[in-house]
Write a structure and sequence with these properties.
Creatine Amidinohydrolase; 32% helix; 6-stranded mixed sheet; 5-stranded antiparallel sheet; 423 residues
């Protein structure tokens, strides 16, 4: 069991998460991977990569809009941030670890939404990128990019930019977490534990899925350091299998199986993915208990395969075939049913584990990786169960940071004999 070692506020009398050390680790690890891949510079346009090298926050309205803000790491220089509009003035105040001269304004075209002006904007964008490389002594060297669109391809070609894959080096950098990042992950787990407890207290027959989601959203946003709650999945009854991974205004009824997933609360940038299964108002049937035990066995068998030096193939081999288990056409039809994925500044850091690809393309498990493993099972349009654990890979063991009870379905307010008529 892994528990958060410290509180979530800074104190003068106790060393907690060392944010300066965390930021420097991320910068230097990105630089290490950049040089490993023979790059002179990396241009980061995805939010998680900008956060990784600059330690700056992407406002909610800027997320998933590559090009509104972006950042570069060039040679041995400090990160350069191209911030949206005049927000850079606030960044200079909020983030003094970025040299003032390295906070600049961006040239946005919003993935082509600027229409005919996109060519003009990408030309300015490219000129600024090349100038940053020149300033840091890496002009003419390979530029790794984590995002590209048709406008960039054309203007890069006209300006002889030698651009290559920059996402792979950034993925490799983000895959292994520092001790400070691991402590952030433990805190995320502790918040998840508390939120599942809150869910257990709030669930009852008569409330709707969206009311549960709304209650938990409010609960989470009252926690200091909570900057985003991407999704709180609440599914009940027939919505649980197949798992549509959403919520609706369906009324939760006595005897319903309900599962809730924190996908993803974001505390100081670090994300969760954390399922638990509940039965509301009555004890689950023996069939439901058996289904849950099957999914739980798959989960813990796969967790038993996690160790330094093992591979994602070793983990995925512990899961059954989708064709044999559910009669599906292929493994892709069961995508995310039996699943593992890295957690960090993104909800999909390496490794991502699935029978779809891990059997033929194994990835080595490394010390310091943080990821979630999740399994599910059910009866079509009747009920489904979903379980997930978050863990840290240590040198000689794994540390589980999701500590809400998991050995059986959590029963909420059962009344003897209540709802026995529910099939």
């Amino acid at each position: 069991m892994g528990v958060a070692n410290f509180g979530i506020a800074g104190m003068d009398w106790q060393q907690r998460v060392n944010w300066d050390r965390l930021r420097e680790y991320r910068i230097e690890r990105a630089r290490q991977m950049m040089k490993k891949h023979g790059l002179g510079a990396i241009l980061c346009m995805y939010d998680e990569n900008v956060r990784y090298i600059t330690g700056t926050l992407t406002p909610g309205w800027c997320r998933l809009k590559p090009g509104l803000r972006y950042a570069m790491l060039c040679g041995d220089g400090r990160p350069v941030l191209f911030e949206q509009g005049d927000i850079g003035m606030q960044v200079e105040r909020h983030s003094p670890w970025i040299p003032k001269e390295n906070v600049r304004h961006s040239f946005a075209w919003i993935k082509g939404a600027a229409g005919p002006a996109s060519t003009q904007q990408v030309t300015k964008f490219t000129k600024a990128v090349l100038q940053a490389m020149k300033d840091n002594g890496v002009a003419g060297q390979k530029l790794g990019v984590d995002f590209v669109d048709i406008n960039m391809i054309q203007i890069f070609k006209e300006n002889n930019v030698n651009w290559v894959d920059g996402m792979t080096p950034m993925m490799e950098a983000r895959a292994v977490k520092s001790p400070d990042e691991q402590e952030c992950f433990r805190i995320v787990g502790a918040i998840g534990d508390a939120t599942h407890w809150e869910c257990m207290k709030f669930l009852r027959p008569g409330v709707t899925e969206n009311q549960v989601t709304a209650h938990l959203m409010e609960y989470l946003y009252n926690i200091p350091g909570m900057e985003d709650v991407e999704d709180v999945i609440v599914s009940s009854g027939p919505n649980t299998w197949p798992n549509w991974r959403n919520f609706s205004d369906r009324i939760i009824q006595p005897g319903d199986i309900v599962f809730m997933d924190l996908a993803a609360l974001t505390w100081n940038g670090y994300k969760s993915c954390y399922y638990r299964t509940y039965c509301v108002g009555k004890e689950p049937s023996q069939e439901q208990k058996d289904t849950y035990n099957t999914a739980l066995g798959w989960l813990y068998d796969s967790m038993g395969a996690v160790k330094v030096g093992a591979t994602t193939r070793d983990i995925a081999m512990k899961w059954p075939s989708a064709m044999e288990t559910w009669g599906y056409e292929d493994e892709d039809q069961a995508a995310a049913n039996l699943w593992g994925h890295g957690l960090g500044l993104a909800q999909y850091d390496p490794p991502v584990i699935s029978r779809i690809w891990s059997l033929d393309h194994p990835v080595e498990i490394q010390e310091g990786m943080t990821f979630a493993l999740e399994t599910q099972h059910g009866k079509k349009f009747r009920y489904g169960v979903r379980i997930e654990e978050m863990l840290i890979v240590k040198k000689n063991e794994i540390e589980i940071v999701s500590n809400f009870p998991v050995k059986q379905i959590t029963v909420v307010d059962p009344l003897p004999g209540y709802g026995d008529h529910v099939k």
